[in-house]
Specification:
Length: 538
């Protein structure tokens, strides 16, 4: 601390002006609490490519914070310290409750928002306590920027992804027809004369949309645009991202027409990165146009602020930083101890594998690299065949070793979400049933889908390698809130997390009705599902 000469601000009042100490220890503790608070969110950053950019946002927040540090306002007293202890206790209890829930289901997005919101509120509270309302206003944007790393709620994301995939496919096929190239959009599939092009989730434009919002907010902060101009900039970057993604889809479709699918695979990632670069460049140019004047941006170099010499101003702030870190660390330790004790009592079930038919017309199916990365499966088998009744069958078997991302993957990639995106219409959910075959209990979810020229009976099995049967890993993204809440409570109480899972999806076309399809499916499943013998591998 550097003390400058005393000055007189009012008759009879002596003040000391000093340069603010850098509260390094407080920052280290608060950053440590943030690492613990965002640990469940980082699972989504790893398992969902649409949110992989989330790893960069904490670093950007630190950059924005320290960029604002030289121009911070003088500190002023805050009344928050008088209610500090009960607030910290309440914060710790709520944080621990939601940390337990996030461990059971790391893709329960409302819970992730609560955890992140609690951490952001703690940071804002520390700023208010240490520097008063002036510091709170000055540093609020870098702190709240953390929220851009969070996954969107399924109620927003699912219809948006599906809509973007259909919009891209429809617009690209219309553009191809204007170029006298035959093309028809069926869901997110573009049917071409020499094959088809799938607009998958990664190509929908949702990643470009999310990144553009983050980029618009970042540039608006760097160039210190006003609130209205920041909104305009974000809207412009969104438009650039959507237009760019349409151009990417059209480019890949033209490649498929003239050079085949091998060329599409070779250029797929390059086209995606190019769109991101072009969107970034366009957003930067838009920011320059919105800014007052065209002088290049430079980091602020104003001198550090001075303030009144408050008695022991660091003690309440340091107490808050220590308490927040301690509460987060104890919550993490308590969560690991609880689940470690409970999951040791979870019963395990026999493992099995899929043995595909050995008929002459069986054709194995190979998943694309993009599909494998999205599914995050550890092993798979897939194929199609025709039986002696001329019924067409397709089967997909997946193995997921125990890991915390399994629930989120299965909640997202399931027939209810995936099949409508490729042009299939869901007609009916039949009653679920349990099939006991080869000494294994399968909880089967039967459904009926259709296209204009065929009816598809689909049977989906989720087989957890441990835990209660039937499984509760259902389509959680579309489940009612009360159902999700009960599921989370049961998972927390039983210690269910990171359960290993096997799934098998069998579809058949040709049966005249559901009863005939079910009977044929049970006979088929008896030959498909083969229990593992000791020492065998999938």
């Amino acid at each position: 601390m550097t003390v400058t000469p005393k000055i007189i601000s009012k008759p009879g009042e002596t003040l000391t002006v000093r340069r603010t100490d850098v509260p390094w220890m407080n920052w280290v503790l608060l950053i440590g609490a943030g690492i613990l608070a965002f640990h469940p969110v980082s699972i989504t950053w790893n398992s969902n490519a649409n949110y992989s950019y989330g790893w960069w946002i904490p670093l950007i927040c630190l950059f924005l914070f320290f960029e604002r540090w030289p121009t911070r306002p003088p500190r002023e007293p805050s009344g928050l310290r008088t209610h500090l202890v009960p607030l910290v206790v309440l914060w710790g209890l709520i944080f621990f409750a939601f940390r337990l829930a996030a461990e059971a289901d790391p893709d329960w997005r409302p819970g992730l928002w609560v955890l992140a919101g609690l951490y952001v509120a703690a940071l804002l509270g520390w700023l208010w306590l240490y520097g008063g309302k002036g510091w709170l206003r000055h540093f609020a944007f870098p702190v709240c920027f953390l929220l851009l790393s969070l996954p969107w709620l399924f109620a927003i994301e699912l219809p948006l992804v599906e809509g973007l995939m259909h919009w891209n496919a429809s617009l690209a096929s219309s553009s191809l027809r204007l170029l006298a190239i035959p093309a028809i959009a069926e869901g997110n599939i573009i049917q071409l004369a020499n094959g088809q092009l799938g607009v998958e989730e990664a190509c929908s434009g949702i990643l470009s949309l999310q990144s553009s919002i983050m980029l618009g907010c970042l540039l608006g902060e760097i160039y210190r645009l006003g609130a209205l101009r920041r909104v305009v900039l974000v809207l412009l970057t969104i438009v650039l991202a959507l237009v760019g993604n349409y151009g990417r889809t059209l480019f890949l479709a033209l490649l498929a027409v003239f050079h085949g699918n091998d060329a599409v695979m070779a250029w797929h990632d390059t086209a995606g990165y190019s769109i991101l670069l072009l969107t970034g460049a366009g957003a930067w140019l838009a920011c320059l146009c919105l800014r007052d004047g065209f002088a290049p941006w430079t980091m602020a170099t104003a001198p550090a602020s001075t303030e009144r010499d408050f008695p022991e101003p660091w003690r309440p702030a340091q107490f808050l930083a220590v308490s927040i870190f301690a509460a987060a660390a104890l919550s993490e330790a308590g969560t690991q101890v609880w689940f470690g004790l409970r999951e040791a009592k979870i019963p395990h079930h026999p493992e099995w594998t899929a043995q595909m038919p050995q008929t002459g017309n069986f054709k194995p199916e190979a998943l694309s690299k993009t599909a494998r990365e999205a599914l995050l499966c550890d092993a798979y088998k897939a194929g199609s065949w025709r039986d002696d009744k001329a019924w067409n069958w397709t089967a997909f078997w997946f193995l997921y070793n125990p890991k915390t991302s399994n629930k989120s993957v299965l909640g997202w990639h399931n027939p209810d979400n995936c099949l409508p995106s490729v042009g299939l219409k869901k007609d009916e959910d039949y009653p679920n049933f349990t099939a006991n075959l080869n000494g294994l209990d399968f909880y089967v979810q039967p459904k009926r889908f259709s296209t204009p020229d065929r009816t598809i009976y689909l049977f989906w099995v989720i087989y957890p390698l441990s835990g209660s049967l039937p499984p509760v890993i259902d389509n959680q993204s579309n489940a009612p809130f009360d159902s999700k809440f009960r599921t989370h409570l049961a998972d927390v109480w039983e210690g269910n997390r990171g359960v290993g899972v096997e799934t098998i999806e069998v579809a058949v076309t040709g049966p005249p009705n559901y009863d005939a399809a079910k009977a044929a499916y049970l006979e088929c499943l008896k030959g498909l599902a083969v229990p593992n013998t000791p020492g065998s591998s999938p």
